Amino acid sequence: MSEPTARPGGEQRGERRDGSPERLRLADVVDRTPVRIALLCFALGATLLFAPWALFGTIVGFDALVGKAAPDAVGPPWLFWAGLGGMLGLAGAWIRLFYRSDQLAAAPVLRYFAAGALGCGAVTASLLLVAAVAEPANPRAWALAGSALLAAALCASTLQRAAHAP
Predict the structure, then answer these.
(1) Pick from 152, 96, 98: which is nearest to 125 by CA?
(2) How many CB atoms lie within 10 A of CB 91?
(3) pLDDT tens, position by position, 73-121
(4) What burial letters (b/e) apply to 2-14, b meaning 16+ CB within 10 Å?
(5) What does the alpha-carbon distance between residue 114 and residue 118 come to, in Å, rounded to a whole number?
(6) Burial of 52 (0-12, 13-18, 19+ CB in 10 A)
């Protein structure tokens, strides 16, 4: 086993300043190259699957929300909020995956936007999952469950890094 190396603050690598062992943080796991590649592949699939729905929901829901004159409205007004939440979640995921934790720590506005967008995406995916769970064999429900969990984990890693930012 290799010897621990000293950090600039004087503490040993793998230790905190008080001498207790350092735990691996979720933000550190997300920043590893193999994990980022896997997350990028998942995000690409989620974008291809959910972006058209989110865009359609935003446009149709906005029409139903604002243009109440049309009696044959295509969709209910909640589609706007669901679509907007989905678009925000996708944007937050791509921001979190394109920027490493140290880059996000240096840009607090971007960090908090990414965390908020991921939170909106996780809540939206969870609410849509509840609506889609009527059919347990529905593959969309499984995709929503994975997306909600991933968005929540990415949001937690972004906020966790914010709590430990220099």
Answers:
(1) 152
(2) 17
(3) 566 777 888 889 999 999 999 998 898 888 888 888 999 999 999 999 9
(4) eeeeeeeeeeeee
(5) 6
(6) exposed
